[in-house]
C-alpha cells in the first residue's frame, strides 16, 4: 500500500471513532430523560402513579383521597401527610410536582 492509501484509511477510521463523540459533545442533554410535571391537585390516580417515581397506584389513590378529604394541596411538603409518602419519595419527585389547580 502506498502512503496515500494508509492516510485515507486512517482518516476514515478516525471519522468513525470521532463522530459519536462529537454528536454527544454538541448536545449535553442527549440521553437525559426530561421529568414530566404533574398537577397533583387535578390529576387522577393513574396519572399520578405514572408520573411520580416510587408512587404506585395505591399511593396515588391515597393522594387523591387526601385531596378530596382536605382540599387542594397548598405546598408540596403537604404530600408527606399522605400515608406512604415520606421524605425520600417527596425529594425524588419534587421537580415533577406542580400545584397549579389550587
Descriptors:
single chain; DNA polymerase, domain 1; 51% helix; 4% strand; 4 helices; rod-shaped; mainly alpha
Characterization of this structure:
There is one protein chain. The chain is mainly alpha-helical and 102 residues long. The protein has a domain at 38-98: Orthogonal Bundle (DNA polymerase, domain 1). 51% of the residues lie in helices and 4% in strands. It is built from 4 helices and 2 strands. It has helices spanning 3-26, 45-51, 57-70, 87-93, and strands spanning 38-39, 97-98. A two-stranded parallel ribbon has the order 1-2. Helix 2 crosses helix 3. The radius of gyration is 24 Å and the shape is rod-shaped. It starts with a helix and ends with a strand. The model is unreliable at 28-32 (pLDDT under 50).
CATH topology of the domain at 38-98: DNA polymerase, domain 1
Structural class: mainly alpha
Biggest β-sheet strands, sense, barrel? 2 strands, parallel
Q: Please count the beta strands (DSSP E, at least 2 residues each).
A: 2
| Helicity level | 40-55%
Computed over alpha carbons, the radius of gyration is 24 Å
Average pLDDT number:
81
State the separation between the terminal residues, measured CA to CA: 75 Å
Strand content: under 5%
Shape: rod-shaped
How is the topology of this model organized?
Layout: H1 3-26, E1 38-39, H2 45-51, H3 57-70, H4 87-93, E2 97-98
Helix pairs in contact: 2-3
